Amino acid sequence: MKFPKDFLWGGAVAANQCEGAYNEDGKGISIQDVMPRGIKTPHTDLPTEDNMKLTGIDFYHRYPEDIKLFAEMGFKTFRTSIAWSRIFPQGDDAEANEKGLEFYDRLFDECHKYGIEPLVTLSHYETPLNLAKAYDGWVNRDLIGFYERYVRTVFARYKDKVKYWLTFNEINSVLHEPFMSGGIYTPKDQLSKQDLYQAIHHELVASALATKIGHEMMPKAKIGCMVLSMPTYPLSPNPDDVIAAMKADHMNYFFGDVHVRGKYPGYMKRYFRENHIELKQDKDDAEILKNTVDFVSFSYYMSVCETADEEKKIKGQGNIMGGVSNPYLPASEWGWQIDPQGMRYVLNVFWDRWQKTLFIVENGLGAVDELVDDGKGGKTVHDDYRIDYLKQHLLQVGEAISDGVPVMGYTTWGCIDVVSASTAELKKRYGFIYVDRNDDGSGTLKRYTKDSFFWYKNVIATDGEALYEK
């Protein structure tokens, strides 16, 4: 079984991790602008100079150079996000910021210049800070209306430029990072389950509403959801561990279940009952949720284990979404366990569960890269470790396609080096393109192609055939 000829090969970034220009052309402050250490430490009240994301990799000014490099690799699609606070600086503004809209006009036009289809995330961990502070983020139902205004504005503006849309990035991550994912200002350790799941309900309604509006305004467009996939294996064959793994999976699956099936699954209704959670719903919410997505997209970086034995619950260092370390798997420099076969597994599970076309929109290896002389008067990075990681995962995508799973595309995370969301570091690099910037703010911002750049170019040019060469 071959990769399909219309397979959407490409790469992915997020506005808040690459654009910089945090206070230019009328942009408002987002939650990312007050997270100088990512999710590692509490956020600040105002942007501080040590926040790497304020400058990012200066994509805001350098995007033509970067898009040209993506085109050289042969990208069919480029996933990015729109910074909500560029369009509505406070989030609750009555009018959109025209200069913000013009920037994305230029960006999408640059993509089309090279035949690259934009894949656009509407909300990628960058809620306007005002909506977090004044409304407590998605805990407040008013955010549905603010999000609707934003969605209608960008759909009307870019309906002829963008075919593929994602409503929320890794929507299930709100379970573990409520400020970053849901703009919830209440500290995590003080947030009640009632308020957390009320916020989730508001996001799910807003997502379905965006899908409905997208289908009405752009009949030919495809609207997808985006979840963080974290396949959970039982730590042992003990039935208690199997049930523990099932319950852990349920907490992530339910977001996709609602997006695809248009209603809450029974196991979540039980969870709500047993935890005394009573969702406040408007009379139209059930009907709105019936506006289901066209495809399911997801990130995949690692798998985890789960056990019912409290004494064996050794959490993996990099497992943002919880879980127990797998004794059979190696880990990256940041403690993320590497499991290529988990890619095939999760593709099969998602297809069997939802029967919706799947799109892998994040997958990659964060590593410390060394910029060295290339022997031709320039510089490069010899990143065989990244090539091996991506190759092993793509081979498993090929296995899933052979299993009969419809996969519409694959966009590697951080196709150009970006500032890490979890740690706000630049030394944790993912890209095919090295950006000369360091965590102390030094560097020229010059771009250098890595060995993986040419490897991925060949993979795309051969429609994946190069993966099977000895």
TrEMBL record:
Its EC number(s): 3.2.1.86
UniProt key word Hydrolase: yes
Pfam families on file: Glyco_hydro_1 (PF00232)
Residues annotated as catalytic: E362
InterPro entries: GH, GH_1_N_CS, Glyco_hydro_1, Glyco_hydro_1_AS
Origin superkingdom: Bacteria
Swiss-Prot/TrEMBL keywords: Glycosidase, Hydrolase
GO molecular function: 6-phospho-beta-glucosidase activity
Keyword Hydrolase: yes
SUPFAM superfamilies: (Trans)glycosidases
Family classification: Belongs to the glycosyl hydrolase 1 family.
Record protein name field: 6-phospho-beta-glucosidase
Organism: Pectinatus haikarae
